[in-house]
Amino acid sequence: MSPQPQAAVGAPLSRVDGRLKVTGQAQYAAEFDVEGAVHAVVVDSSIGRGRITGIDTGAAEAQPGVLTVIHHRNAPKLPYRDNSGSNNPPGRRLRVFQDDRVLFHGQPVAVVVATTLEAAQHGASLVKVRYDAEQPSTDLHEAKPDKPTNYARGDAEAGLRSAAVRLDLTYQLARNHHNPMEPHATIARWDGNKLTVWDKTQWVMGTHDELAAVFDLPAGSVRVINPFVGGGFGSGLRCWPHTVVAALAARVTGRPVKLVLSRRQMYLGTGFRPSYEYRVRLGSDRRGRLSAAIHDIDAETSSYETFTEAVMGAGQMTYSMPNVSQAYRTVPLDVNTPIWMRGPGFASASFAIESAMDELADRLGIDPIELRRRNEPSEDESNNLPFSTRRLRECYTVGAREFGWQRRSSRPRSRREGDLLIGMGMATGVYDCGRFPAEARARLDADGTAVVEAATSDMGPGTYTSQTQVAADALGLTMRTVTFRLGDSLYPPTSPHGGSATMASVGSAVVDACNQVRQQAIKLAVEDRESPLHGVDAADVVVRGGRLHVQGNPARGESYRSLLARNDRTHLEARGQYAGAPSPARRSYFAYNATFAEIAVDATLGLVRVRRMLGVYDAGRIISPKLAESQAFGGIVGGIGTALLEHTVTDHRDGRIVNANLADYLVAVNADVPEVRAIYLDGEDNDGNLLGVKGLGEVVQVGVAAAIGNAVFNATGRRVRELPITAEALV
Question: Which residues pair with 576 in a beta bridge?
């Protein structure tokens, strides 16, 4: 079969939805004008654990504009069918207003519904709740962990005992919150027994299924709409309680209800990257060849659900060693349930593992890159599978050359510019990219334009644009004649928009649907006696610019428009599918990076400034270079925040988050962002998807914090094993 020309894929194109966003025409969840909508404001608990003993709503209900106050004493009972398939962790998910139990500080205990937002806000401030408070458990280091999840190969304890060089290191990682620009919001409307919600979510089908389960509705009675997401970073990967609250309030009042969380409430009700204590015991010979590693990992979860993430994967396959032991323990606390955050699991593990590798390199007097090269595996030792592609050696070589690694001094605290101590560091990043089942629908209309639909999301990576690119090439159309639609549960179902899975999963379904439509058109042409292509072998026909023609003979052909008009076809349509990752797995499928950082530390004040960063990526085929650049920059900026700024602070006396705002919870802003460069290795990874992609959204943040931490050590000679790295730790 002749290869279909590729004109859009690989081109540095601007976002197709960019104009809508910069002109304010893109509609986010809270911006839909739903006729008759009223406003809801959540009242959240002021204790971290206990029971509600009384609720006084009289003052609130007496306010002009207030329609009702809903709480556990007057709310209808909800079925809450089991729904473990919508990213709900094991346990018993929070059931809003169904009993008097308070499980964490900030739990919704009531909602005020009013005709105006101001009336709802004022009414919420007047609701008085009495509690029988108990002492909450919110400290990771003082609570009792669950039984561990274990992994082992070889005999790690024996390997460690016999190692010539041994390290025993413990790293602490603070809780991080996502803090997207768009707050979480829901508009809910009932039409009889049918529920429509406009919701900020990264998985419209997950929210759809959860609402159907909570209210015991048939799947066809729920619709979720979500065309734009103003950032997510993982915070929208499950349906949170406030979405159920909005739907419940709409049912009780008989009016459409809009509920927007405040910035403070987003710290209380939409998950977070959990805090970790990660102990690494590492053994090697004196040439740096690793012989054993023991990982002891403690991570917070809620008391009512057990959240876990892939924090064990990196320690099993990043480096070659015969003996590995891991114990991963969740620690139940009186907190809201965590959720995945960019680079989940791997980003947290990489700080410990890559910092430990740097400490070993310093102990042995070996260059950190050379140490990693000496421990590069030939296969995935966790499952004995060959790697699909693994080009870390090339990442190291290109990164060292382009970053000027040869200028790094191996002796810490030896490079100085006035009061500034200068250091360079690097780290390896790996991420297990997702490949999940997905479907898409493609329709080619008689006017030569096409519409492609899938129920995926776009929280910022450019899904609208990248999917339009692959659809345009598969159909042989120009970008301007293809419309990609997403964010509606009426479209063909897809997987969550996260885990670096969208391009491989949804993109493969889009290509399949568009290939089918193109083949339908080719078949129609070669069988049509009036077509210039009649009798041509279908395998020799390609489509470019909406015109079917013989490969190598562009003069012999015709347009989609003329073909469909002559055959009285209003359209051609097909539904594409992608089955997900091959099962059983044939290869070990990961994306990789080498991340480099140069930092400056004020020798007197301990202030750290990142001066330069470089990421070199083995991420398969790059569909859109412009979007890829944006992904890498965003991941690196997020990693800078994790390394130097972000830290959720909890008052353990009552479970209150004391910095639940953007004034006190610090994130990286323009002034914190250095010169950033990203390099993508050419090549494709064709293991199990039609596009040769791996995904880029997650791996770009993995290793960034470790690279910065290693650079801080190189600059100052002080090893900081706790994130974020603060000035106090360096003076």
Answer: 440
